[in-house]
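Handout, section B. The chain below has 208 residues.
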Amino acid sequence: MRTPKHDLPEAVAKRIPIYYRYFKLLETDGIERIKSEQLAKLVAIPSATIRRDFSYIGDLGRSGYGYEVSHLIQIFSTVLKADILTKMAVIGVGNLGRALIENNFRRNDNLQISCAFDTNPALVGQTLNGVPIYAIDQLVTVIPAAGITTAISTVPSEASQGSAEQLIDAGITSILNFAPTRLQVPRHINVRYLDLTAELQTLLLFEE
């Protein structure tokens, strides 16, 4: 697994998008500055953790004054590459893949699903929400031609390793995998896992 930019620890890197989203909401509400204690209540993260997270990026606030919302948006936008369009491919146009394509990060202008791939001949050649669907064996030509390096895999566990190998051969270096199976990939390939079943089971553990 690759180290995040700015030498951010994994846990900190996962919280940065959360901070950025809330600062954008604050900007929309016309709030110009906020203290860490106030931000802590919004994001449900301890203020000490917030200050420590921010220290990895730089001297972002002033004691007693807080953080300027517009300044933090600029900083986090750079860290998250929010001003750069990232095109992605979806592998597997089942229920989950279709839902992702239909939504297509409509609230994030810097993220865009631009193509999809599936093994179902009935889907190949169709366009869903403006996204063309190709056959799996077209990966090696379509992805490099589009300059795509990020993919979202929604295929079943038994197909996830094979799909990952095809993606890597096509030039993909970052994969978001919805299957719980851990992929065997080269060290330079960045993989993140999103197991919806495990997340839901964890949530239910806290039910009374």
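Note. Residues 10-28 form the longest helix (19 residues). Compare this with the example in section A.
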